[in-house]
From TrEMBL:
<dbReference type="GO" id="GO:0008757">
    <property type="term" value="F:S-adenosylmethionine-dependent methyltransferase activity"/>
</dbReference>
<dbReference type="GO" id="GO:0032259">
    <property type="term" value="P:methylation"/>
</dbReference>
<keyword id="KW-0489">Methyltransferase</keyword>
<feature type="domain" description="Methyltransferase type 11">
    <location>
        <begin position="68"/>
        <end position="159"/>
    </location>
</feature>
<dbReference type="InterPro" id="IPR013216">
    <property type="entry name" value="Methyltransf_11"/>
</dbReference>
<protein>
    <submittedName>
        <fullName>Methyltransferase family protein</fullName>
    </submittedName>
</protein>
<dbReference type="InterPro" id="IPR029063">
    <property type="entry name" value="SAM-dependent_MTases_sf"/>
</dbReference>
<dbReference type="Pfam" id="PF08241">
    <property type="entry name" value="Methyltransf_11"/>
</dbReference>
<keyword id="KW-0808">Transferase</keyword>
Amino acid sequence: MLKKDSDNPDIFGSALLDYHSNDYTEDITVISSLTENDEIPVPYLFRAYTEMPEIEQTALNLTVGKTLDIGACAGSHSLYLQEQGIDVLALDQSKGAIKVCSKRGVHKTSVSDILDFKEGTYDTLLLMMNGTGIFQRLEYTQNYLKHLKELLNDNGQILVDSSDISFMYEEEDGSYWRDASRDYYGEVTFQIKYKNQTSEAFDWLYLDFDSLEKESVQVGLKCEKILEGSHYEYLARLTKL
């Protein structure tokens, strides 16, 4: 989720609380610097394991030990892991999201930005639904990875998914265009809208696997591709070198 201050509305939290309270009337609108407006269907954020894409199911199946679910949203991943006997903590910046996690039965929760979170170490760090997005920009990636490494037990793992969005820049003649104002093509700026509220603009990073591997090695992490999807998405596992 995006970084918030007192003037920035908790869009996801509001939508999740409405849905959980049976007050679902509309979805979240996404305004992108790269493409046309899109929508996030709020019911999808409450999906069960059987409704999740293969990459998410694979990551959950690989999750072991004490786990931190980063960007937990409505808690769907945390709830499944909890049901499997995993000791999981749901973490999100959104107070509303964490309130919904608790209402749905997640036992352990925390409201915090990941860079401010320093409570213990973990066997698995889980970053799903384009988990590299929280890095914001390529130049910040190593700072985030260093912090995640500090939260990792010696034999622990970071499970993170992302997508290579270079295909979105391809022209009909096979050539590619680039946004000269961006340092890296996977950097996108979003705003999100729900009912009568609109968030401030925030940066979100789609990171191709080769770039993730390069940045990981620079901070002492091994990066392994676990699964590649049919539409440029992938699941990676990061471990200490």
